[in-house]
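@channel sequence for tomorrow's demo:
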Amino acid sequence: MLLSDSTTLRLGGPAAAFVAATTDTQLLEALTAAERPILLLAGGSNLVVADEGFPGTVVQVATRGIERDGDALHVAAGEPWDALVAHTVGEGLAGIEALSGIPGSVGATPIQNVGAYGQEVSDTIMSVRAFDRTTAETVDLAPEDCGFTYRSSAFKRDPERYAVLRVSFALHASRSSRPIRYAELARALGVEVGETAPLLAVREAVLQLRRSKGMVLDANDPDTTSAGSFFTNPILDATAFAALRERAGENVPGFPEPDGRVKTSAAWLIDHAGFTKGYGNPAGIAISTKHVLALTNRGAGTTAELVALAQEIARGVEATFGVALHPEPVFVGHAWDPIAA
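structure tokens (generated this afternoon):
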């Protein structure tokens, strides 16, 4: 099986073996019996798989199920994420409406601590049920055990340990959204930051914003053949951010973090380092024509070409601004080389 058939980048060579698990029992059996190494695969929206493929067993997480307990939802890891968001909006449950349109599975969201438009899944996660591969036990992890940080978690930092089975969300019964935190979304809705809006209106506004940036999967739009935002926004200490402003000027974006550090915009840095929309190979790998944070496969690309472009961008940003960029997707069968970048 070619893994390019199961990733949103449409890149990746063959898997040595492939197992589909539609129940937790099948998933646990596969994790204990399959030949190593093992790759867990669901939506494939956050993977950069090597052209050579994966030398072990790919276990597809295809479990399904949504259980409601009051304002809480207990959701199987294999459920499609955006379908869950649509379900919560339909049920009048607020808390993840601004995360509409994000591809992938429910089980992947705590791993990446998925976030967009002012919301992160860690805002609403009440527990994660996972299989601990080091002890062969099923555990229920509280949020503080998940080690959530910006676009990361204990699951991402130690990818060989846990397999997510179920995610439980604490939501809020309301036809109005949680307070809007993101200025661009507030403008699209015609409200002030901190105000609320109808759930469905928030979902539709987010989907429209994401479509305008090529961030909603569409088979007819090559700008969506990507892994979403390829680089995370750098978070700098005060000294490093002051140095950045010395080099880049006062217009460089800065968003204060609770710990005193400052988050800046990877997209701004990329664009102002000379890597504009569409940069690259129009028949292979190129920056999206809609958003400089997305690297796209225009049809004839390879993973090697993708990584080469990503490294070129990272080198250019560091040379221009002295800021290191870090990729957001997970690399499979190869690694991000910070020296090359």
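heads up for whoever presents: The chain has three domains: 3-61, 66-210, 222-332.
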